[in-house]
């Protein structure tokens, strides 16, 4: 069982994972084999443990200890118990849900490993808002997508905000980084996937038509500002839109992903 340690001093060096590695610093550990990430909230902490991530430590207010007693029972990591009023002094942000945990990252699999048994994968290009990244993982996990592929400059799915918004979907959805941005979509096509770019381009067709009858599908989503790059838009096998009323040109990328995933799953 995790050893419980009562802590009163926010400057205690044992809390370094939570104080010295705030979210800005976590980006420097992006997908690093020996990096770490923070999970916030009882459900998310529990899901990270259930997904096989190794906890380094736990940090929580006294009232959250009982709720996570079973998780702590099976963990070989210290649990630091800190008064709720002092938690923000350590982390630099308001801890809404009382419990945090620091986990070791796992090495990312290769693209080939991720695609080996996949039928439906989401492909993200340069989506940098971590709220959107988390929401897209959740949108893909809900209807049963198999994996997510991220362009090199896409936001970190294990950023605290991404994990929280996605309710831990990133823990169970296989994912990896695409090593070659330029050739990414042609490589997917060569691997047997039909890539479908979500776009408002004039030659796009309604998404229901674009995904109909496709066996191995890869919807492609672009950044929050300008959408997909010309390279990715043109190198996709098909271009698709989400039909909407006049005067509304597009949806937020997270909302678009939810609609696209639902329609794609029903194909």
What does this structure look like?
With 267 residues, this protein is α/β, with parallel strands linked by helices. It is elongated, with a radius of gyration of 20 Å. The chain has a seven-stranded parallel β-sheet. The termini are far apart. The chain folds into two domains: 4-104, Ribosomal protein L30/S12 (60s Ribosomal Protein L30, Chain: A, 2-Layer Sandwich), CATH 3.30.1330.30; 111-265, SPOUT methyltransferase, trefoil knot domain (Alpha/beta knot, 3-Layer(aba) Sandwich), CATH 3.40.1280. It has helices at residues 16-19, 23-26, 42-50, 69-73, 84-91, 111-115, 130-141, 160-165, 169-172, 184-190, 207-211, 230-235, 253-265; strands at 4-6, 36-40, 55-60, 79-81, 99-104, 121-124, 147-150, 175-177, 194-198, 205-206, 217-221, 238-241. Helix content is 33%, strand content 19%.
């Amino acid at each position: 069982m995790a050893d419980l340690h009562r802590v009163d001093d926010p400057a205690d060096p044992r809390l370094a994972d939570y104080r010295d590695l705030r979210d800005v610093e976590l980006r420097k550990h992006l997908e690093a084999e020996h990096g770490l990430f923070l999970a916030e909230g009882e459900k998310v902490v529990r899901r990270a443990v259930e997904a096989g991530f190794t906890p380094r430590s736990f940090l929580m207010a006294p009232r959250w200890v009982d709720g996570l007693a079973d998780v702590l029972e099976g963990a070989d990591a210290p649990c630091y118990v800190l008064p709720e009023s002092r938690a923000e002094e350590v982390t630099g942000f308001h801890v809404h849900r009382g419990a945090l945990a620091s986990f070791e990252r796992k090495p990312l699999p290769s693209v080939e490993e991720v695609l080996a048994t996949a039928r439906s994968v989401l492909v993200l290009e340069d989506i940098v808002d971590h709220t959107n990244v988390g929401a897209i993982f959740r949108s893909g996990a809900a209807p049963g997508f198999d994996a997510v592929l991220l362009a090199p400059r896409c936001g970190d799915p294990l950023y605290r905000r991404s994990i929280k918004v996605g309710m831990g979907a990133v823990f169970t959805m296989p994912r990896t980084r695409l090593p070659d941005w330029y050739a990414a979509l042609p490589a997917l096509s060569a691997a047997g996937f039909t890539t479908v770019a979500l776009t408002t381009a004039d030659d796009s067709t309604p998404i229901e038509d674009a995904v109909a009858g496709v066996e191995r599908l890869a919807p492609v989503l672009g950044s929050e500002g300008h959408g997909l790059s010309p390279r990715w838009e043109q190198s996709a096998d098909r271009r698709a839109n989400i039909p909407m009323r006049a005067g509304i040109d597009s949806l937020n990328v997270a909302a678009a992903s939810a609609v696209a995933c639902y329609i794609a799953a029903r194909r």
